[in-house]
Write a structure and sequence with these properties.
This protein is α/β, with parallel strands linked by helices and about 250 residues long. The chain contains seven helices and seven strands, in the order βαβαβαβαβαβααβ. The protein has a single domain, classed as NAD(P)-binding Rossmann-like Domain (Rossmann fold).
Amino acid sequence: MKVLEQFSLNGKTALVTGGSRGLGLEIACGLREAGAKVALLARRESFFEEALKLIPDALFLVGNVQDEGSLEAAFARTGPIDILVNAAGVTWGQDALEVPVEKIREVLDINVTGAFLASRIAARNMKTRGYGKILNIASVAGLAGSPSEVMDAAAYSASKGALIALTRDLAVKWGPYGIRVNALAPGFFPTRMTEKLLARTEQLVRERTPLGRIGKTGELAAAALYLCSPASDYVTGQVLAVDGGMTAL
């Protein structure tokens, strides 16, 4: 197979949780462009407004990653999938000494437990076919601590660190079944989740990034395509930081 052919997703089906907006939608667009059939999962039907314009032939699913029954129903509608992207996530910015316990639990439940539940539902079917790709969207916040003046969201950082550990552990456990489990660790990209933070701290982020800027739209999708395509069939249990060199400091 020629090199570029290894990035084709023709005949593949991908489900992206949190795929209605932000980085999840960007990744979904990249997978669709590469030839995959795409299903998007979001909590509310109203969230799909932008996605409907960009991927009108996608399957739009309303569901909650915190609810295993809801996820089971979504997967049943999608049918067998080759690729799962766990992009659903939330954050909460507040001094770690003050953040309410219910917010800590909510962030961990959505970002970690939700990814775990979706992954094992997908893996049960992937196991029977001997092949599958699971991509978790982690963060550089899961690889290193952040000064409060850059980001004050300890529960989010904890959840992304846990997601990275889950990625590595499931890669070991499910590798014998032909299931590859990897993660992306994005740096700072302009999204709805980061817009308020970057309005205050973008200059600090630039100063802490060797490339001297935040990420651009489209720069994560290509990395995701690599980890979701046959091009990475000998890669599992890895965390790829797409961060302008931030974690190299």
